[in-house]
Records
---
Amino acid sequence: MSLQNLIQIEIPEQLAQEINTNLGEVENKLAPFMIALTPAQRQEYGRLGNHFRPWVDKVAVHMAQRPDLVPNFVSKNEYDADKAAIDVLLPMLARVEALKVALEDTIKLIGSDLYTNSVAYYRNIKLLAAQNVTGAKPIYDDLSYAFPTRTKKQPDPQANNG
């Protein structure tokens, strides 16, 4: 019986390879359209938040209905291309973000299982090493770096001498 088993999955190697191949294909297909910003650039440019999407949609409608009111320094063709691109990319991003959250949640549970059971094993090995069980000490020595022993700080003999 396992100490903790929050989740149990087994992804066949062939399926994992197929998924990674498919993800690579998606990356390759999107690569010509993607931009990589520096952290400074990410701070510099605003983001079209969800609360402004409907407003931008209304602007697009008004621009289409009254192109004579579009200022000459705004390219209607570039605006329409940007609008079409964001309309295509946002649903993709939503799917990728949902997948990312599901992957993170799954990995979190698996990680919790691994950590809890690894600590249980380590504590058992530590106990067995203390009892001089054959073979336990080298394993304990190999694993103990993750839990450095805390030594009590000795009082400084000169600290109270004033």
Note: Residues 39-146 form one domain.
---
Amino acid sequence: MSAKLRRTVASFLAAALLCGPAAAQARDFPYLFADPLRTMPAVVEKGVILPGDAAPFSGALKQDFSRPLALSEAVDLALSNNPRIKSAWADIKIQAGAIGEAYAAYFPTVSATTNWTLDDVYTPGLTTETTGYNNQASLSWRIFDFGSRPAGRHAAENLLVAALASHEAALQDALTGVIQAYFDAVTTGAAVTAKTKGEEIAKETLTSAKSREAKGVVSKSDTLRAATSLARASLDKNRAYGEHQKALAVLKRVIGVPGETELSLPQDLGVYNGPQSKALRLWLEEAQKSHPAIVAARKQLEAAKQQVIVTRAAGLPTVNLSANYYQNTRPAQAVVKDSSETTVMIGITFPLFDGFASTYKLRGAQAQVEKKQAGLEDIEQQVAMGVTKAYADATSSLSNLESSAALLEAAQSALAVSQRKYDKGAADITEVLGTQSDLVDAWNQRVRALAEWHSARLQLLANVGKMGRTAVAD
């Protein structure tokens, strides 16, 4: 290798080393336009607005766990931290990119190449050195096919709608999960409160029994029975506390906070008096029409049908236009300076035989249509079952509200009466312990009825696909 050639190679290596970092920073150069074909849906920029809400969810949260966690706050945390929602959001962007690819098939592709050549030939007594360059520009454009590109575009558009619906379905599922976990935690927390009150009443009863035994009014058996009742109440409280801790652990996982986070929940649930009189038939019709999971399945079915067209068209002829421009002859040929060449070609491709691969691809695409159809029917059945169950739960829990309130009032009055009678010697310990147990159960039933009603009405909205953060805040 001659000294000049060695210097030339060294120069190229040095340039490559110097330009490496710059090239790495500019590796996105061909992609300066983020979305030139405007395929990205507006929801990616503006955010998702849930049914009934006026604004999209921001996702920016700084929760203060020193105060009781409201349901709306738990929902916000769950929507921010749910990995399935994040994955579904990424699927929207992926499918928007797929639409861009489908639209790009309508455009020509253009490329340019430039080559610089140094030819250094050494023979004994003679060194020949030749330099030169050539340029090439190429254009390729498919101008006709048998519906492959339109079908691919329609398939991509349907899959984007399916991705949007799947994201909304993931939101609805997340709402369903956090509602269930939240009210399970509230219910078990209320059970702890009720069992604690029951333990306190049992302590008072034992104190009264000891006092009456000391006065010789009752026998020691009353004191022993009161002590037994207190021990049972303490055991029930400890068990309720364990169940509450498990429910809190599930809630923490659902809302995506560390397990060591200390959570407290509100004690008073209140009574919701919103509209709930719509017939089951109307709920079912609304779910079948607009539930995001059903919408997604329908669009996936449509995309599968379009894919059959794409697969079938792949075995049909295509017409392509290509053009090339060469300066200083073609690549890999001897350089002829100051020469140019232009070629234009229209080609028709006839697929003749591919070993029956296209036949089996078509069968596979048709089978995918059958699979998507079955999946749609399965999802429709699941949604209908969920709506029916949620409607039954809401109807039942609503009727239980008034009954539980009456039960609690009656149990409180009964205990007060039995305690007064026992203090006056007009009742035995059995009556006091019985009314004491009834009151603890009535407390449990009241809180359970409230929690079941709140949960059931929200679960009904979620099963229909109409759940929003506004409904949670009501």
Note: The radius of gyration is 38 Å.
---
Amino acid sequence: MQVPHPFPYQGSKRTVARHILPFVPRDVSRLVEPFCGSAAISIAAASRNIARHFWLNDIDPALMNLWSWIIDRPDALASEYERLWNEQHPHRKDFFFRIRDEFNSSRQPPHLLYLLARIVKGSIRYSSQGMFNQSPDNRRSGMRPATMRKSVSRVSGLLRQRSELSSLDFREVLSSLKQTDLAYLDPPYQGTSFARDHRYYAGVAYDDLVDALSYLNDMRISYILSYDGRTGSKNHGKSLPSYLALTQRHIHAGRSSQATLLGKDSLTVESLYLSPALTQRLRDTAYEPDSANFTQRALV
């Protein structure tokens, strides 16, 4: 079954979600995404009846307001999106910038959905003043209204009355977790996230993340972390400390989009890190990974 996704989002794990879900224990009561973005893992898990409840969080309040409309007001959102999509023709570029200005003034969810459907590479960018400043991809009109309505409706059906939404600092979310939960952490991409920058609403410092992981280990919380990897022979990101005792898994994610544009054959390998509590939880259920998709290296 094709999993619905209402909007493109740079760094989304939509294409590799099927490789991540096998590491989610079937006894998880709540799946928590402190950096939810496009909520790709929660949507994929809900579509497969994995986990009973979901907690979506992102520090960007406008994004979480959009998620509120997707889940609780899908028809109104789809109708407003359709109106904007139709009004953009024939002057799509000028219309995009007008809607961007309106969004920066009002933060209306339908405006953000339209912008996400049109921006370059699905990459949200904010100025130092917190103003959305990404440009449109003028080759595309954005998802067609009928397709958008279907996607929003399906996501709403999967997550309604099963989801909690918030816009909190990720550490506040982590401090509320229980041992029956599973957290999926996908922080802003390492190498661009050590301070606030134009590619993210807010960054995550390396030391803050390591401290948070150490706290989760002390509390015996199960978590999966997506954090680094490599493209071809180039490694991305600073290594995590060995004292966290994480188990690293590699996901072969195929050719990178940048390599494709350059006509190269560089393959992307993304890293997953499993917490000690999760590793034990999976071991207790006699879990065996699919060796065709994963390699393993224990960080000890």
Note: Strands lie at 30-33, 53-57, 163-166, 181-185, 222-231, 234-236, 247-255, 267-274, 294-298.
